[in-house]
Amino acid sequence: MNRLIVVSNRVRLPQTSGAPGGLSVGVLAALRQRGGTWVGWSGTLADEPSSSPHISEDGGIRYVTVDLPRAEFEGYYSGFCNGSLWPLCHYFPGRFRYDPAEYEAYNAINRRFASVVAHKGNASDQVWVHDYQLIPMARYLRAEGIKGPLGFFLHIPFPHVEVLRVLPVYAELVRDLAQYDLVGFQTEQDLMAFRSAVRDVCGEEAVAVKSYVTVDGRKVGVGVFPIGIDVESVAAQAAAAQADDQVRRLVAGVLGRRLLLGVDRLDYSKGLVERFTAYRHFLESSPEHLGRITYIQIAPLGRMNVAAYSEIRDALEQAAGQTNGQYADTDWTPIRYLNKDFPHHVLLGFLRCADVCAVTPVRDGMNLVAKEFVAAQDPENPGVLVLSNMAGAARELTDALLVNPYDEHAVAAALREALELPLADRRACHAKMLAALKRNTIRHWHESFLASLRSGRHLDGGSR
Ligand code: GDG
């Protein structure tokens, strides 16, 4: 088997604290099962970073991390990645900004990552690049003389070209993606949106075949590879975590009430403000549940240096304060909002204890919390998932209570329905969702992507 080199903006080193995010959870599971090298940023900024990376090894994974230049990082990360690409990919053109200097910084950092991979890798290595921070990397890897198969997976949604066009350099990004040999998406809708962009940039004939696109004479395989989870491991960790002190304290703190749980990185795409409003509607319209339910929202801080994120934090604190101000009693706090992160196994323990899990992003590539919640449940007495139809996970978890996250009254009604669902229905829905997760595990995700990259089977064609 060829050696695998995975590249992502951030590398999650062993024994680091802090919430890792979905990409790291997925990549780490893949590397643990398969072995390989993980290349990315060390988390350290320097005025003049050394070109030699830090190298360590743990559990069959080689970690190669680089420090990044302070001067370029802001433009790359807060600027082009999270000020330009993230809002467009999540259909928020109102939050979009563009600055050519930030785009330049984005390219400069991509060139830096490419040079590390070119110097640490072999010609036969399989290189798998992850996510929107690294779209142009293949162009720089090709310039370094790398000829081998290069794969790219986009963890977040790909926007339809009518939204993407807001970005002045959108055609360059489409051409950059075409420097890979295989480009993978979470859902069929993302792939269709990518094809809409390729059609716009290169014409109708570029998308004549279903399994590849042709850009400037180059065939690029395209496919849908929805990310999954390690179902057995999540289930086992969630069950074992019942004995964990933090999980016991959470259960004790709820005082026998029903538990509604949300776990999301603090981000406007996760629909938290809308969810808090929906919960308030639920309390307003369900007097029978007053005092009988506690909503715990765990929202670890992600990118707090980006201004939009401190705005949302303030909005949530205010919304939680208002709801608690109106409804709290001497022994009841309706919303508990925690801006802190927990070890992953503890979170899985929390998920297992929840009667209802609200996963209501206004846009999400997949959403692993939804999948982890299902896997973490006791099949004999499972909780209920209220899931946004704007999350990629809704394509597979069709037996969740699906909601439009913008329809706050409908979300309130779904919360009520979830709390009142009879055991037989809960069991039946849970069994179907668990079966869906087992059909598409994390192993299936990386094995199918890498097998396809190796064989080039997407380039064989197939009719549309
Ligand atoms: C991106 C895409 C796509 C959460 N809080 C803590 C913590 N977590 C873990 C969860 C879950 C992961 O982080 C979050 O994954 P999501 O998929 O929900 O979200 P993103 O971070 O936005 O991930 C997303 C994903 O990539 C994978 O392709 O699904 O659409 O946006 O595993 O349990 N883990 C720890 N402490 C926390 O406080 N340790």
Number of helices: 16
Radius of gyration, in Å, reads 22 Å
Mean pLDDT: 93
How does the major sheet shape up?
9 strands, mixed
Can you give the helix content as a percent range? 40-55%
Helix/strand-derived class? alpha/beta
Unreliable stretches: none
β-strand percent reads 15-25%
Tell me the distance between the termini.
32 Å
Oligomer: single chain
How do the strands line up in the largest sheet? 3-4-2-1-5-6-7-9-8
What compounds are bound to the protein? Answer: GDP-alpha-D-glucose
Number of DSSP strands?
Answer: 15
Dominant shape: globular
Structure overview:
This protein is an alpha/beta fold and 464 residues long. Helix content is 44%, strand content 18%. The protein contains 16 helices and 15 strands. A nine-stranded mixed β-sheet has the order 3-4-2-1-5-6-7-9-8, with helices on both faces. A six-stranded parallel β-sheet has the order 12-11-10-13-14-15, with helices on both faces. Strand 11, helix 11 and strand 12 form a beta-alpha-beta unit. Helix 1 crosses helix 16, helix 2 packs across helix 3 and helix 3 packs across helix 4. The radius of gyration is 22 Å and the shape is globular. Bound molecules: GDP-alpha-D-glucose. The site of GDP-alpha-D-glucose has 26 residues, from helix 1, helix 12 and helix 13.
